[in-house]
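Standup notes, structure subgroup. Blocker cleared on the fructose -6-phosphate input:
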Amino acid sequence: GKGEFDHFMLKEIHEQPTSLAQALEGRIDPENERIALSDFEPGTFADVESVQFIACGTSYHAALYGSLALNQAGIRSTALLANEYSVSAPPVDDDTLVVAVTQSGETADTLNALRQANAEGATTVTVTNVVGSTAAREADQALFIRAGPEIGVAATKTFSSQAVMLLLLGQCIAADHHGEPPADLEALLPELAAMPDAIDGLLETSEADALAEQYAHSQSYFFIGRGLGFSVALEGALKFKEITYEHAEGFASGELKHGPLALVTPETPVFAVFTGEEDEKTLKNAEEAQTRGAPVIAVCPDDHRAVDVADEHLSIPETAPDLAGLLANVQLQLVSYYAADLLDRPIDKPRNLAKSVTVE
Ligand code: F6R
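Run returned:
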């Protein structure tokens, strides 16, 4: 049941410290500076030259997160919408690893793309929450995110666990490919181990409810970010639109001036996600919106320069650069939840949507 919570979505947001700890259990060893994914012995990915991630919806945003992190680790990778794969897949060969990211393991679009990749001779891995799912059975190998059942149609805890597992997988691929662990692994592991506590603290102190109340009657909601923060901006907007039924869009912060700025008014709050990737540029982009009267909400640590510039602030704990976006995402999940609750939406079962989309 929902226990003390009004909705499964809120319960699942609050389960993230536990679900992440479960995902990481036995898989990271900060003391010895290593990652151990039991089904993937060191060397498994030695021949991988490039990686394609395929996924839909929220899982696509996690895939984008994993793909950007892998590019930053020096491995050629792209995230592709599974429903576009049949018409736009880049060539695959036997050095290509194709990673299907799907919470349910039953999404028709993702299964089609996975089957195509299998048929073309790629090595395939599924990252999924469901043991025994079709995607888990049909890929060469499966990596389970261990988030536990997710009842709310809007994916929350599974996004966080997917993104973290993709970071771990990416570190293993980069280590095998380069013949040594990525330089930032040593700094990343303790921060990964600290993620459950960091999210706990964030949940206890979040002011997302008051913020949602302040802006719940706006015209449109924009989310901007750069790099890993861009995938979080996309996810923040998807969550917001699907449960509030209000118009929301995510943009790469640098794209704002290439068109979307025409939509910006005092009625369009802009959530700016700061992940330490050229934050100065993102701040400048946010100020361009602010100049047009839009309230800017900075999602960043307390001592960040953006706090002084922005109209409002949602706080995230200090962490490793690869993880800041995931903490920001938890604040955005809460904003969406509280905004939808104020608007009296059926949060766990939004109209027209299903938890698992088994048609093309
Ligand atoms: C959004 C949401 C959907 C799913 C998408 C893919 O909150 O839940 O966008 O992420 O339908 O589903 P899976 O991950 O099961 O393949």
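Discussed briefly. The two ends are 32 Å apart (CA to CA).
Next: hand off to the docking folks.
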